[in-house]
Structure formats: structure tokens, C-alpha cells
Amino acid sequence: MKAGKNGTNKNARSGSGAAVAAGVIIGLALAAAAIWAMIRFMPAREAEKAIVEDAPAAASEPSAPAGYSAVRGPAPGSEAPYDGELLAYARWLDTAGEHLVILSALRPADGPASAAVSSAETAETTETAEAADSGVQARSYLLGGSGWALAAERFDPMPAGAMAGYYGDAPWTGDFDGDGLGEALAAYWIDESPDAGAKRLSLLAFTAGAIASVDGSTRYDPADAPRLTPSAVAGEGWAALPAAIRGEAARLWSAAQFDLAEPPAFPDFARHARFDGAVLKGENPFWTLTVLPPYALLQIASEASPAVIRYTSISDGEAGLVIDGAGEVGGWSHRYRITILERPAVAPDGATYPLTVTIDWSDGTRYSGWGSLAE
Asked: Residue 54, SS3?
């Protein structure tokens, strides 16, 4: 994805996003499953369809798309007002004119960052933002004969004490479908609890004076509790976007989901993401191994809780995946080599599984078993 941004960006807590504390800086990427109780929810909107993870590939972008060009310019001021603290912005020219996208964050004490535009719509949205205590705001402007006119806006409220930020070098701009009209993409997260857990994640697509969105949550993989898988629900206007734009957005969403998950995924796991959630089993003794992005969980029947095997390396073997790691079982520390082969295995009950696995312990113990990728 090509980044065409202009302005000030901040790093998210993961090191790849823009983080802002609500009460201090608060400010602006799939969560419905046991996410932390929300004092204030995102504005309701009717979902049209869930985002397709295997989205169509983006159209090849010409080296110099006809009608589109990124524009460098100063930070927005009173001519294009926004609320709260400026996080990032981007400008571009296309066949419709000059565009400006502004990403900002609002905390309770914030008022409008600059003078309001003299339009009833802007006055109404500014009043709504001020009354919402705190939240993240995105605005899209189009330059016309009388100056910058507000084309679209989204405000996402959140409770006091929450944290929020934009993911990566947002916003990304380009002519992703090659029609001469530019688009901008941005993902932001909201963390409503100081404790570890899933975050709210939203993705915005700015196109032709409108904002389409996908809202959901990030993944949470605790070692001592059931995992919370990521969620994603598309909002109004998403299904109408060209496939090339949805494909580019899906790649951004996937990257944000991976980078913002808690605990952080092992860096090399991204190349082997299809093994996420694979469950492998064996007998003598009975054991279950669950492969997760940050670590693997080995549950042995004789142990009260699973052993957390933290990865030290993940690589492709001759016929499958080889994972090296270390963990503690029964008060003893061990090193492990987990070899997962995409080779059918027959379990003692006669059922056939697509994966064969061996777990070699540093003390010479070997477990052999079978299993499947996550459905």
C-alpha cells in the first residue's frame, strides 16, 4: 500500500499506531464477544455485510494515475475546522478538485480547534462533538469557489479515561481503483480499559464526499482464559465501494488486526497466519496443543493449567512448519520443537485429520498426534 500522507502522525501503543490518552491527550481499525463494558457505544448504524477477509486484489495503480496527485500543504486551520487535537491529515487533487482529510481527537475540555464554518451542518456536528465529552473525529473537505466545504464527517464517542489512536501512517491516499478520483483510508483503535483485552477497531474509507466504515474489535489471546477472536461488521455504504478499494482496505484492516492484538503476535507468525487457532491432540498422556499468534498452549491431562510455550523461532520445514519455543510444565522448564506436517493422520478412534504433529522436549520426551487448522 502506498502511503500518501501529510502532517503530524503519532505512534500507537503497539509501535505502529498513533496513541492518545483521553484525559491527557485523548484523542481518534473487528468486539462484540465479551469486550470490556462500554460506558458509551459507537453511533448505531445498520450493517450491510461483514467485511470479506479474502477481499479482491486491488487494481494495479498506474505510476501516475490520470487525474490524481498527492498534494503537500500546511496543517489545516480556521479555513477547515476540526475539533480537539490534530492527529494527522492528507491532501490530494483529482478530477473533482482538491480534497483534505483531517483526523483529530477530542477530550472533554476541548472545544472547536478553530472557527466553525458558517454552515448549519458544520454547526450541528460541532455541537454534537462538544456534547459527547470525548471521542475521535474524522472530517473530509472539498475546496470550492467559496473555500473549503465540509463533505463528510464521523465522530465516535468514548468514555472518559479511554485511550485512542490511529494505526500507522494514517491516512493513506491514492487512486486505488484507477478512476481518476482519489480515496483515503484510515484505521483507529479505542481502548476503554487499562487492563489487557480487546480494543475497538474501526476502518474508514473516504470516497467521493462520503465515509464508509467497518467497525469491530481486535484479537485477545490470554493464556489463562478463552480467546476473544476479532470481529468486523461493515457499515452503511461499504458494500457499494469498488472491489479494488475494499481489497486495499481489507489489507489495511488485516495489518491493523495483527499489529494491535494483545498479547503482541510473535513477529514471524504473520507469514504463517493460516496456522492461527490450529488444534492438535495426542494420547498417552492425553494432551492438546493450541497454536496462537503470541504462543502455543500445551494442556496435559495431568496438569491443572496449560503450559505456555513462548516461541523463539518459526520456520518452514521440509514438509511443514517448525516451531521452537520454551515453557514450564509441572514446575520444570523445557525447550520444545513442534513440527506440524500437512500430512493426513489417523486418530485412535479411526477419524482422519489433515495434520500430523510431533512435540520434542529437551529431556528426550516425544509426543505424537494429529489435528486440524482452525475452521
From this structure: coil
